Amino acid sequence: MSRVAAIVKRFLIPGSIPFLMVGFAVGVVLLNSGLSMQYGRVWLTVLLGLYWLLSLPATADALIQNLQHRYGTIRTVEEAPAATVLVVVGNGAVHYKVGDFTIDHLTRRSAFCVFEAARLYRLIDPPWLVAAGGGTTDERARTESELIRDELVRFQVPADRILLESTSRTTEEQVANVARLLDQRGLGGPILVVTTGAHMPRVMQRFHDQGLKAIPSVTPELRYDEGRTAWRRWYPSAAALRGSESAIYEYLALGYAAVHSET
Question: How far apart are CA 237 and CA 242, in angstroms?
Fold first, then answer.
């Protein structure tokens, strides 16, 4: 990942707290710079309006649905002909530690990936599954792929059928490492890919770049509206703000990948 992309990922995703703090700081500077005071008022007003809009469940739902509608979910064996490998592309894990005590668990999005992978295993019974996802810089942290494997085993998937990709830090690395693993194992043919609906467009693009035929199956829908209906969907929500941030991140990542694939 380039330095610019890393900065954007950390500080410049609309909907995130870092972006809000950067935007607020810019507004304060403009307010206190004399001739630019009017621009400062306009800037802070726009920033407030943006975050109000992104915090609406209706907005988050619209942003996510535009990504999710592109791919469906496999319901029958006939929809995944000749697929012998099921790849679970994780969406993150969390590591907590206090002294010698540590706890690792999957994020909600990764948990839903496990649910979908377990369902597909029962439906299709593929010979191999690949759990993809690395860890943190803390050597004591368990990798995401290990956490995915353990949950799949808990759902009656045999451990000896699960291959691990445990060194990646980004989606691009996940896909590249999976492609390398499959090549080393001599596993060809179409692969069945599981991830969230919002993440799937970028994952499919990366597998296409690797020259692999991938059949997508998205997770059950992840909603950020706290079950709200009618006019309540137009009332600000912290959960909706997180959903909007997640969707915008995917849009920016897709744009970044498209630009770099053309260069």
Answer: 9
Residue type for 100, please?
Answer: D
pLDDT band at 2 (very low <50, low <70, confident <90, very high): low
Find out whether 105 and 95 touch, Cβ atoms under 8 Å. Answer: no
Which amino acid would we find at residue 63?
L
Q: Between helices 238-262 and 200-209, what is the axis angle to 10°?
A: 20
Q: Which residues contact 152 (CB under 8 A, 6 or more apart)?
A: 88, 114, 117, 118, 121, 129, 131, 162
Q: At 86, phi and psi to the nearest 5?
A: -110, 120
Dump pLDDT digits (tens) for 140-168: 789 999 999 999 999 999 999 999 999 99
- What residue ranges do the domains of the chain occupy? 3-67+234-262, 74-218
**H or E element, residue 241:** helix 238-262
- pTM > 0.85: yes or no: no
CATH architecture of 74-218: 3-Layer(aba) Sandwich (3.40)
Decide the pairing of beta strands 101-106 and 93-98: antiparallel
